[in-house]
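for the writeup, i need someone to sanity check this before i put it in the appendix. the sequnce is what the collaborator sent (i think, or maybe the updated version? ugh). structure was predicted straight from it, no edits. if anything looks off just tell me and ill rerun, i have time this weekend
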Amino acid sequence: MNKNKRFEVLDSFRGVAAICVAMTHMHYVGSVAELDFFRGSWLFVELFFVLSGFVLTHGYAFKENLTFKQFAISRTFRIFPLHIAMLLVFLVLEIGKFVAEQYGFHFNSGVFSGPTALIEIIPNLFLLQSWTNYTVESFNIPSWSLSVEYYVYMLFFATLFVKGGVRSVLWLGIVMIVTYLVLNNIALLTGPVERGLYSFFIGTLTYLLYKNMKNYMIKIPPYVFTFVELACVMLVIFIVALDAQSSVVTGPLLFSFTIFVFSFEKGIISQFFKHKVFVFFGKLSYSIYMTHMAIWVSAMAFFLFLSNILGFNMVPTIEGVRLIDFGSTILNNVAVFVNLSIIVLVSKFTYNKIEVKWQKTGKKLVD
């Protein structure tokens, strides 16, 4: 088994999924962002969890002489720098809201109140917000999944002390226990933690299946893989477009099978996802996921401000949801494209200036 293998197609999946999650948080009246598929694309957070379980098992589960210092520094410098940077951005946005209110411009919520109260800064800073029922999703909303994932990483490392088949049974046991809790509505853990544990350890089991089946699967003709890949893509589109809460149980299972199939990179659709454009989005996936909400919130605030000046409401509330509307379906769709373009440009900057820089610093600490 090549421990240095890079699953390019799975990286591309992460990039496409990050863009879809960004679309979930956009609301432009009558635009492509309002399609059922993008309304349900929040489910791709489950894909992130499954992918993380798969990739970390590949990278660490069979690594010799792995120390907690190496693992913890690697994961911490991968997640925290951009997380802290974006938390600071949201704190600046709150201060900007305060300044605007001094000039008579008011927003939906007060400054540093409710979800963005000062007391929420500490749990957000240490990524603890998803682990208790006393904290809420706040500031950079997507960071809820990082809160779960970071500490699940540490649990995963602890399981590596168990060797052989017992480890597999342990991982399966975690999935089965969480499934039991969910199906019986037992609130032993928070909902976000249940989602993360369930999906992440499904990902670890998926990698074990890949590892044990690889020599058999590579003998299957590419045209068979193409057919199965196409079926997987169609099923993923279908289940995401359902936008059903029950999909947090069934979705990770479908994502697991999809990841297993595409990990062999043998079909025509796999080759399509290996195109440099998708690989580029994959590289920026974490930045796209972490920056998109700040860009959307800024756009919403700007057009709310502009609406007050022009006397034309460009930020209507429809069925309890704030949307942006320029009065034309064409213009609204153009705005979606512009919004995505800004997200990608900002993400390219944060990837180079924050992600890469701090990952290099982390590597120096463990060398």
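The mean pLDDT is 92. Residues 29 and 318 are 9 Å apart (CA to CA).
thx in advance!!
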